[in-house]
Design a protein that fits this description.
Layout (H helix, E strand, L loop, with lengths): L28 E6 L2 E4 L3 H12 L4 E4 L12 E2 L4 H5 L6 H11 L6 H24 L5 E2 L15 E3 L11 H14 L3 E3 L4 E6 L5 E8 L2 E6 L2 E4 L8 H7 L8 E2 L9 H8 L11 E7 L15 E3 L13 H9 L5 E6 L3 H8 L14 H10 L2 E4 L2 H8 L3 H17 L20 E13 L10 E3 L5 E7 L19 H17 L4
Parallel strand pairs: 1-10, 2-3, 2-11, 3-7, 11-19, 12-17
Antiparallel strand pairs: 4-6, 5-6, 8-9, 9-10, 13-17, 14-15, 15-17, 16-17, 18-19
Helix pairs in contact: 1-5, 1-13, 3-4, 4-13
Bound molecules: flavin-adenine dinucleotide.
The site of flavin-adenine dinucleotide has 37 residues, from helix 1, strand 17 and helix 13.
């Protein structure tokens, strides 16, 4: 990461990113385009906003910084879809909202959570209709192992990976949205980053200026929907809002286009960010040197820090594991397993992205990780400890104690469930060094339940909407991974609603 100032630079205590750049002179505008709605950003929230707005009768232009629509992962978390109902998966929405409020330490806006609980099912039904029309089968990850500490909710809807590729499953969903949007008349301009919002004297946002290879273009509209994603690639914003994210081993949000542009453009015209503790999407199992998270290295085996000591219940939700890892020396840990690992992992029955299935687990990928040195292998624990360069006596004592607890079937030291304990005694022995990975920032501009952006006084900035990771009020402090896929779930639900609401602007 690049060097950054440790504190606000200006006399008013503003951070440099909060200071608006000089307005772009009218003479520099090479072209003007007009539509009812301009959507900024072609990720999941942006494409849902664009499609819903055009379906509501608006003319829509999407401008996107990168060369294509953005997609990641594959878990799309909603409650109350028709697929869930068909499978008999019922949700108590009040309970779901209460659980999300607890994860946010009551710093989320409960009204937005309720909105998601009520509207995410219909939003998924809208996507399922398109999937059905294209013959795309969608499945739900429902065989979740309920553990002793956390309730897991069968929220995730998974689209199939594009055939014969390693592309994320959500590539299929974004292709579907893009083709429907284009067919309905949406124009998408790639490599056209928005740089400044245009606000009329009466306070209404009525346009945006974007940069193209041929110069600046002005886009006039009745409403602008900011769907520019997070600020995971702006070190200064990370320092300001979520400093622990600066110590991650890997920033997995690629390509690195999400630099908080929507947040900044809105702040420059009077919008305000969430006051709550900003929420990063932190992931355990970030391997230094690669963005591929090996499923085997993320199982709840024994974790030791660089002092060779155990420091936590390895079976915590992955964001919590990442938090604990970030507090260790060097912000990393070693995960240690033995020759019984495959059988142990099958018994552990880890779900979501820790599932022991391709592409994140297979004999080939384990061999690849050993060959590349991401996973160390040794015939004895002494040899493994030396390869890991850990204090030998401490490491061996930690393994002895762990084996004692595993044989006892009770983790007296850290309370890991007995179903996820196993001795480390059968050679060969393995170890992988991992830290936290950053999968995005999830807190942003204050919005109301119409997804309109608010100013410092809490008043609506007319004509300006935000959805997805550009918007706030939904997550705080930590990502509720037990409600799997809910970052996509918010993006698709609120993107759709923002588009529908923006289409009603006069
Ligand atoms: C590896 C990985 C796996 C993940 N898996 C999951 C998962 O399974 N489930 C889940 O819920 N979440 C997952 N996430 C997180 C999730 O992908 C994001 O939170 C979500 O996609 C955000 O959607 P969005 O529409 O807000 O932003 P994005 O999808 O990031 O879209 C923002 C778009 O805006 C564009 N943009 C930025 N600035 C400008 C500008 N100035 N002008 C024009 N365009 C601009 C960007 O290029 C981008 O295309 C994952 C993240 C990663 C990195």
């Amino acid at each position: 990461m690049t060097a950054i100032r440790a504190e606000p630079a200006s006399a008013e205590g503003k951070w440099p990113f909060e200071t608006p750049p000089p307005p772009i002179p009218q003479a520099d505008i090479k072209k003007t385009l007009v539509a009812d709605i301009i959507v900024v950003g072609a990720g999941l929230s942006g494409m849902c906003a664009a499609l819903s707005a055009v379906q509501a009768g608006a003319t829509v232009i999407v401008i996107e910084k990168g060369p294509r629509c953005t997609f990641h992962g594959g878990w799309n978390g909603v409650v109350g879809s028709r697929l869930q109902k068909k499978l008999g998966l019922e949700f108590d929405k009040a309970e779901v909202v209460a659980e999300l409020m607890r994860w946010s330490a009551y710093q989320a806006d409960q009204r937005l959570l309720r909105l998601w609980a009520d509207e995410s099912g219909p939003a998924m039904d809208w996507l399922l209709d398109m999937a059905d029309g294209a013959g795309i089968p969608v499945e739900i990850e429902a065989d979740l192992k309920q553990d002793d500490f956390y309730k897991h909710y069968p929220t995730s809807h998974l689209f199939p990976r594009p055939q014969g590729t390693m592309a994320p499953r959500n590539a299929t969903l974004l292709h579907l949205l893009e083709s429907h949007a284009r067919a309905a008349g949406v124009t998408i301009h790639f490599e056209t980053p928005a740089v400044q919002l245009l606000k009329e004297e009466r306070g209404r946002v009525a346009g945006v200026i974007a940069r193209t290879a041929d110069g600046y273009v002005q886009l006039d509209a009745r409403a602008i929907v900011l769907c520019t994603g997070g600020y995971e690639h702006d070190p200064e914003m990370l320092k300001r809002y979520v400093p622990r994210a600066l110590n991650v081993t890997v920033n997995s949000y690629l390509p690195p286009l999400t630099t908080g542009d929507g947040h900044k453009m809105a702040l420059w015209i009077g919008a305000v960010m969430d006051d709550a503790g900003h929420c990063p999407l932190l992931f355990d199992g970030g391997m230094p040197g690669t963005i591929i998270p090996l499923a085997l290295a993320r199982q709840p085996f024994l974790n030791v820090n660089l002092a060779g000591e155990r420091y936590m219940n390895e079976d915590a939700p992955y964001g919590y594991i990442a938090n604990a890892d970030l507090l260790q020396p060097g912000h990393v840990k070693w995960t240690v397993w033995d020759g019984k690992a495959e059988a142990d992992a099958a018994r552990f029955h880890s779900t979501y992205c820790k599932r022991m299935v391709p592409p994140l687990h297979s004999p080939e990928i384990v061999r690849w990780a050993i060959e590349k040195g991401y996973v160390l292998q040794a015939d004895t624990l002494e040899e493994l400890g030396q390869k890991m360069v850990l204090p030998e006596e401490t490491f061996l004592a930690t393994v002895r104690r762990y084996n004692e607890l595993a044989r006892l079937g009770q983790d007296l030291d850290f309370g890991k469930p007995s179903s996820r304990l196993s001795t480390i005694e059968l050679p060969p022995f393995f170890a992988a060094k991992t830290g936290a990975a950053l999968l995005g920032t999830l807190t942003g501009l204050k919005v109301n339940t119409r997804l309109q952006v608010l100013d410092t006084a809490g008043a609506v900035i007319p004509g300006l909407y935000a959805a997805g990771n550009a918007s706030g009020g939904f997550f705080a402090n930590d990502y509720p991974i037990t409600m799997a896929g809910i970052s996509h779930g918010r993006a698709l639900t609120f993107g759709r609603l923002a588009g529908l609401n923006a289409a009603t602007e006069r």
